[in-house]
Amino acid sequence: MRRLSIARREALTTLWLAGPATLAMVLFIFLPVAIVALLSFTDYQFGATTLNWTGLENYQRLLGSTLGQRAITNTLLYVAIVIPASVALGLLVALGLHRMTGWAPGLAHALRAVYFLPVAATLVAMSVAWQMVLHPSLGVVNHVLAALGGEPRNWLSDRGLVLYTLAVIGIWQTVGYNMVLFLAGLVAIPPELYDAAEVDGAGGGWSRFWTVTWPMLGPTTLFVLVVTATNAFRVFETVATLTRGGPAFASDTLVYALYREGFVYFKAGYASAITMVFFAFLLILTFAQIRIVEKKVHYR
Amino acid sequence: MSTTPTLELQGVTRRFGPQTVLDRVDVSIPSGSFTALLGASGCGKSTTLRIMAGLDRPNEGAVLLNGTNVADRTAHERNVAMVFQSYALYPHLSVEQNIALPLAMRHLTTLGRMPVVGRFAPGSGEARAKIRRAVGEVAEMLGLEQLLHRKPAQLSGGQKQRVALGRALVRDPVLFLLDEPLSNLDARLRVKMRSELVALHKRTGRPFVYVTHDQSEAMAMADQIVVMIGGRVAQAGTPQDLYERPASREVAGFIGTNAINFFEPGSAPAGLHPAAGSAVIALRPEHISPAAAGTVEARLETAEYLGSEVVLALRAESGAELRAIAPGNYAIPAPGSAVRLGFDPAQVHVFDAASGQRIGEAA
């Protein structure tokens, strides 16, 4: 057998290494997305043998109806609360624990595990716990509120409150994950930079943070932002288990609407349109974050 | 020049847990001097520097800056400048901002330091102009004018080194502390930066404290060398002192380009020194060379021709190994042949066999 040239052999190796994964990606990601994109222009229903081309009707229905608009604005509001709050809290907790490892390593480790628990736990199971905690008459929250002289609230069935309640649960769930990422980022900061900052007169708490910690956490922050944003956009479990989008669609979100239309009412065409809008939002957000922030984060 | 040294460490001891890293260290940095802290890695020289800077505090002992105890002053309050081995430049700031940072911290308020709003902070315009002028001067001195708007990631090692120096120079500190600043540069650049550092030292007139593990760097640049071994000061003195009168066997082994010859008691070639039977004798290779009338005889094992000189590895009749240096034009005999060697008796060092301390005055 004739030996292949080195270039040919290297090309074959490359193909062999990257080929299967590429094929899987095309088959299981790109192709379904393309199909969903096509379906979004039809009135297809699950199980039906025929479908009609309806053009932009599905999109008009989603963007034009109060229900569709509400799902979008609810999702955006939820994201707008969860991203900044969980990133800021994650950073704050990470800074605290990082400092604490200096004088109480045991306690810091224990607290880290506690903060990470919500990430590791199943959100559906945790939702049951939240339901108990937030119960209008039995819940701890209202008892504490009453003891402090406040007025008990219907956290999950008050139309004006429910979305914020869900946002708080969302924050509670992501802070631990963000904290772990920030902790890793903090450990990676070269200690000489802090020394340099101290010699240069930036050794005080605030100037130390602004001169060294925050800029050096730039890449971590970008990653945390992207991950938090995608997770926040996908909010589903809490909605499905605690409120089912209610009361009166006050906590309806894009993914829950997608689930309801697609898997309860079997409107595959409409659900596909929701998916595409959801996809577009995520893409725009991630792209913007990377374009705007990456330039400022990698310092080249 | 005042007689008070700029900086003095008195009986400084530093412990990390059970480990004593510095053991009653006394160091005095005269004003305007160039002091090298020389030692192998782990000898405590970097800790000493950090204590001088105020980045670390001693467990015992005092740090005096111009005669006053500065135990409770931060690095910034001491107004010392430090250049780090890794340069420690702020990666998100341009060269100009990196150099300007110490001045910005000193002359601008928190509001004034902010990127855009800062322009409108009261009194900041004047301070900014002053800072820009100072940065410009330093950049010119170091040849950084063309690089002021680059980020550290876009600079070569040598350029980063200059920026780090610039950040130290710009604030006119009372003392410069340099932690192995040249160790990340390639050999050629290192030699070039050596002379630049010496020139910079002359120009500023401020004392430099220079940490290094490279004895040739210390010998070439410093006017005072403090040799540290195992957390103690083994010897402090001028390069000549250390070379000609090493206080201990360890110092003698550390100083000098060519590794010094040590002869354990009883193993020295006959005729080297009368105390050879009971003490350790040391003689540098450059002080013993082939001579027709020499009194020491040894067999040649290998010879390294280096152009300007030939390094000979020999074995004496006593069995001891011995290295000698011959001039470059020396006709190298065949390996195994006997070579007669002459030496300068004034250059023979004698150390106590047990303590390793120097005995008598040989110079």
Walk me through the topology.
The complex is a heterodimer of chains A (300) and B (363).
Chain A lengths: L5 H34 L17 H8 L1 H38 L1 H16 L2 H11 L6 H8 L14 H26 L3 H9 L5 H12 L1 H16 L3 H7 L10 H11 L3 H30 L3
Helix pairs in contact in A: 1-13, 2-3, 2-13, 3-4, 3-7, 3-10, 4-7, 5-11, 7-10, 10-13, 12-13
Chain B lengths: L6 E10 L2 E11 L4 E5 L6 H9 L6 E6 L2 E2 L5 H4 L1 E4 L11 H13 L16 H19 L14 H13 L5 E5 L7 H18 L3 E5 L2 H7 L2 E6 L2 E6 L1 H6 L4 H6 L6 E3 L16 E4 L4 E3 L5 E10 L3 E8 L4 E7 L10 E6 L5 E3 L12
Parallel strand pairs in B: 3-8, 3-9, 6-7, 7-8
Antiparallel strand pairs in B: 1-2, 1-4, 4-5, 9-10, 11-12, 12-18, 13-17, 14-15, 14-17, 15-16
As a percent range, the share of strand residues of chain B is 25-35%
Helix proportion range of chain B: 25-40%
CATH topology of chain A: the name is MetI-like fold
Mean pLDDT of chain B: 87
**Order of helix and strand elements from N to C terminus of chain A:** HHHHHHHHHHHHH
SSE-based structural type of chain B: alpha+beta
Tell me the CATH architecture of the largest domain in chain B.
3-Layer(aba) Sandwich
Helix and strand string of chain B, N-terminal first?
EEEHEEHEHHHEHEHEEHHEEEEEEEE
Shape, principal axes of CA atoms of chain B: elongated
Question: Strand-residue fraction of chain A?
Answer: under 5%
Domain count of chain A: the total is: 1
